[in-house]
Protein 1
Amino acid sequence: MSEHAFRLVGATAIVVDGATERIGDLVIRNGRIAADATGDEVEVDVSGCVITPGLVNAHHHLLQSAFRTIPATRGVPMSAWLPAMAAEYARVGVDPELAGAAAAVGVAEGLLSGVTTVADHHLSWPSGSDTVGIATATADAALALGGRLAFVRGAARDDPQEAAASAEAIAVALLDASDQPRTGGGAAGVARGGMLQLAVGPAGVHSDPRETFELLGQVAARHGLRRRTQANEQVDVAIALERYGRRPLDLLEEWGWLGADVTLAHLCDVTSDEIERLAAAGITATHAPGCDVPMGWGVARVADLQAAGITVGLGTSGGGSNDAGHLLADARLAMQVSGLIGAQLPARTVLAMTTEGGAIGLGRPELGHLRPGAAADVAVWDVSGVADAGVADPVAGLLWASPGRRPRDVFVAGRRVVDRGRLTTADEHDIAGALRTLLASRAS
């Protein structure tokens, strides 16, 4: 038998993609989904389980895994939340050691929740800090655990020239020589056998000037990186109107940041005309209800965005606003709150957001589905227990039942990284303990 090939047998259902489900076996070979078995696979009995593509957390701030439930950040306006978080970052000190420890916690939490790819929008870069070291430590932590990482060199009130120079240095340091240079401003910017991806993205027009957007856009064009930013949360709209007399999307369009290589997170406050403009520009979007709803920052019009032809992914956002990195729990929340602003989103629609929707936003057509040839990123969910008893539709039940459910097994690029609910690449308690010890050593 081959240790690099598996045949998952006896599944209750296999969710191939947003449009296709089947029963039968799923074959993993050489890090890909294979069309047929050859007989030398390791057989894994998945009776009583539903198989889905590995989840894609399309918008996270991994550093914030070290800053959860800070009292001054709970349920406050964003105008109060931003300085409270900044004060915590300054108190603890953001450096490669902290970035790596927080990323390990966030990625491990994700893997144990079925997330095989996480997009980390890193926004805290103290002036003069070791930015390449911070990026490298984050990437190393994710890859050591066996998770895929899309690392976004963000900016939040950074000096524009310093941010651009840092993004350039990170691209040179982390992209393999064979991955450079790329042109066209929409190529994936992928390295390390598809396990690492780089992107750039200012926090938003509320924090960053036109120069930052333009300079980071130039770095993206040189290295074939995708662009990502946040738009149209309450503070974003208010500050844009106060500072520029215009709405955020007007500015992003003028600054060259509405295009097919751009993903916009949040979009809580958009008009119907703006939705049409976004669709015409070819942008993708990310919904983050686990952040926006409890903080009172708004609810995105997901159904309207999708009806206009906009691909929408799902993200948890960071621990500073969400406190958890459980994407499937946030998928359940997305269904629940959607009924407050229109028709309720169906479970399968939201499940597709957590998989292929996020992958499309990253420009990664090999992720987020289980069609033959896809990357073998797979989550196996046991639906045989009491939480799923009486559930008529086990696929819908993945989201509706058991809000804190964990997958039984997780494969990334064909490697089993979670086996019977436990990480195979590290001990989760050691990871948690390392971050706790580090934070305690910096307590003031």
Note: The domain at 2-53+368-428 is CATH 2.30.40.10 (Urease, subunit C; domain 1).
Protein 2
Amino acid sequence: MIAMNTVEKKISQMNDTLFHKVTFSKNINVRERNGFWYVDGRVYFQNKTERVHKSTNKKATKSEKRYIEKNKETILWELSNLKRDLDIERKGIENENAIPLFGDFSHMAIDLKKHKVQIETYNGYKEKCKRYIQPYFKDFRLDKITSFHIEEWQNWVVESFSVTKSIKDIRSVLSIIIKSAKKKKYISENPLLDTDMLKFESIDDTSLSYSDSEMKLILTENDNFIKDSASKPMEFSRTQLKNLIYLSYGSGMRSGEMIALCWRDIDFKNKTINIDKTMRNARVKTTKTQTGVRVIDMTEESYNALKSQKVLCIDLDSESVFLTQYKNPYKDVSEISKGSWKTYLKYCNVKYKRFYNLRHTFATQMLQNGFNIVSLSGHLGHSKVTTTMNRYVDNNFYKGKIGGKSIINDTFN
């Protein structure tokens, strides 16, 4: 195998997040001189212009010329002094000290979290770093990253991936790496502290709930949806979807908690549900928080849904309450939300919202019906009442009429 020369290696490692800002003259010439190919053209970067007329160190053969013609812009950029100056800004002078590049250090920093967080959280860190952070910062030496670079990076993430509020989660992964670098004394200050968090308009909480008219369709079109089934497995899955909908809307359980339910968790006599686990990525885990372990009362909707599910699965020997159309336990809630749920909403002509939003609809409905918010918080498995307040109570919730009422003798709803 023929080894790549320096220019080829640099091209293969091109940082697209910077390269897309570079422009070139319309004509880039490739000429032979002293048995080697030379490139001649202009590079424009950050309001600076440079004419580059340098050897590519490639012999003047036809095959080498074809390669250069195909990659002449990247070659011109790699040979430019503008690129050299940028590398010094990002990396410092070569061998200046032992401070590593971000790309090398970030893997180690994320790996330190492997046994400190749940495996799904750890995998999420790695994925966010790989997709949103590494492409931009991998060639920076740790001590060369400034708050200005971070602000540029934030804008790049938002513009390139159309993310908004999730930038906060992505930024938290960068924070893990920067803080680890500070602990190792590779940097003396954390540049994130001087960087403003991007702000986006808050999503109206009411948009997270299904409206009364939407819920009416969702709750009444089930039987027609089941009748239109084309096969027995489809009829099974659609009937079960109806039960899932009524259980979610009637209990406010998290989707992962529902698909993790076993029949031993259901007490039909006392009309209670024991919640002590959740399902995610094919793994049964403890609930999201310690307060998530709870026993909740069944509403009429959730009781009837579970009774119907019991009849549906009467001939099946399974501990799990809910099964896929292949009669296997669910591995992840995405199997519902990305499959039959989308199909059903389209059938109902209802705009798509996540299946999880039925939980939000339940909470909103309970508050509107006067259910005590402290009791609701415990029912939902929230660790703090403020979590329930922040998610389900809008600014107009408590704007009731008090004129002419007595604090001692009247009830305020």
Note: Residues 1-16, 202-206 have pLDDT under 50 and may be disordered.
Protein 3
Amino acid sequence: MRSIPKPLGANFETSNVLQKCTNEISEQILKDAFNNSRAVILNAAQQYDRAGEQAALVNVLPDNRSKESICLNGLTKEQFSKLYSNQMVKKEVPRREVYDQLKNRAPYGKCPFCGYCDVDQLDHYLPKSKYPLLTILPLNLVPSCPYCNGGKNAEIATTPEEQILHPYYDHGIIMGHQWIFATVVETKPAALKYFVLVPDHFDPIAAKRAATHFKKNNLGGRYSTQAADQISTFPLVLEDFFTNGGAANVKKNLFIQYQAEYAKYKNSWQTAMYQALSDSDWYCSGGFR
């Protein structure tokens, strides 16, 4: 899990992005319809930001009608969707620079939802199929990997507890405290089982949202797979540590790695992995072999 500062500045202002996307629409009637919808779209953007700051995006009501339905000034939901795909995503259009700049804001190019897969696209946190007015809103466009984006699809939360974490707004939950942990499975080779354990001071909704995010993005299974691959490289190095200082030396070096990962990201599969391995007397005493 990784947080990202909100996309701010003139280049990410909704009014400017909307203007860029509508400028090149060739059909004048369509262009006029979007321009006449400007005030409503900007108001929707402001409401989104306020709700995001209050962890209340669940209160933004969806439009569950078909894509052919008129939603504003004669514009259909599908036309809003095409405004995004035709005027913002296509590589040959100048407006693509906004899309690419949003993607490039992901720390180290990694998906903020899972923290380890490469960013490949932008995810509509509130899906464009149900929130047409938010289709090109930068605050609603989050860098993502295909797995996290595809896994969510057009699913939306109906209660505050069902909201997955938002990298632009939930910095405290994501970065403030560790809540992703792991335990060693004493097999040959060793494996890890990941789980959520929130701090006692988390409010009930924040605690459930963390668990929801972990479950809906299948972080337990995905992290275990990543850890298994990494652990397979450890025996040679740890054998040297063991030869030159026994289990205590293995534990010491694994703990140093844990501290380094914790200082970088408290809730990553690496942080939980090194913590679990350094805490395991079985693993440090030769379970790594």
Note: The chain has 13 helices and six strands.
Protein 4
Amino acid sequence: MPMESPLHGAAELCRLDAAELSAAYRSRTLSPVEVANAAMDRAEAVNGDLNAFTFIDRSGAIEAAIASERRWRDGTPLSEVDGVPTTLKDIVWVNGWSVRYGSTTTPATPYREDAPSVARLRAAGAVFVAQTTTPEFGWKAITDSALFGITRNPWNSSKTPGGSSGGAAVAAAVGAGVFHLGTDGGGSIRIPASFTGIVGHKPTFGRVAAFPSSPFGTVAHIGPMARSAADAAAMLGAMSGRDLKDWAQGVGRLPPLDGDDPVVLKGKRIGYWSEPPYGSVDPQVAAVVDGAVARLAEAGAIVEPVSLPGGDLLDLFHHHWFTGAAARVAAIPEADRERLDRGLIEVARAGAAYTSVQLVQAQIRRGEFGAAMDRMLAEFDFLVSPGTALPAFDAGLEVPAGGGFGRWTEWAGFSFPINLSQQPACVVPCGFTSEGLPVGFQIVGGRGEDARVLSAAAALEAIFSVQASKCA
């Protein structure tokens, strides 16, 4: 028999967080089936305008939700997030789903294996409702592809939601699910979080296992996207852990994600990183973030201006990202490469032009930068910065028109350095531009300190009091 449930409007269901859902499932006032249907209805309702989903798995989700309902009824849930509706980016393997990496060059054959992060979410009882869009092979910080078209921002559909986890960000913002799996190799979780007013967390490298290995190497992370820091923390807890398929993960001996007291910002020493390594900050973004930093000081934090160490970080990142793109393109049959995104081909050619000596030298420089960042995060409790240097710009463009940028990396300077150094970083909304576009605020902690960063992000949410959700 289905759980006894009062009437709930779709909009109400789509606003509930993971803790509220688990409490409702336990009390049998809500059914995972009802919630999964509401999430998928919401996805279908917005997809024509926003193009955030490549696939909505109505039959698979309902089957999983029925099983979850049975477990809650019997008092045997797999975890506290059993039955929580979840989306997965079209870049991670999912058993039974076609995973296209946003590319016309990939086969539509369903996979027969879950990626480790997906397997852990499945084992926790998460209900997979839909697959979200990505640009081709996740190579850029906006979301469009020849296969699935242009994904649009729910705050203004003429604007980009960012990328490469743009579809996941839109899904979170509009309430089409609670947990949303993203990947972040240069800002691909945090940039769309900033552009769409949600929470996005790039974990410490190795916190979440990755398989198969990314051609972009150890700058690539897998992490949670949600409408609150609490939901991001709950999702990260479910998807984290050691997996022997991922050698780069190391032995997995990171500090636990639970058990710490909530972070109190009063008295914390915080470094304010206000200038990106390339370009400048949009005046409206600067004003909103400066105001948010002032709120931290009012809350008793000790805020000091800082600059990042490391010299030319844009050049350093290009050595890693562009060579990764070259490796990705080299794996595609030559006859198919003419169908690839022209920008991907261009950066792959630039990557292929680096010599082996230059790449090794870049790896050494990266180690020096990472060590300097570890020392900085030993001196400060946290670093904070704008989530992005600019607000969302016109959809379909890699760089904003008239901005003088050549590649997306040039406007993503608050993101990619933290991929190089592998610290945890979380973006939360802190306000809006005069055009009503969200502005994100990034907080960075020492490696392994994901729990402290997410707890601090929750404290920031309370201080900023910004409700940026576009749920129905």
Note: The radius of gyration is 21 Å.
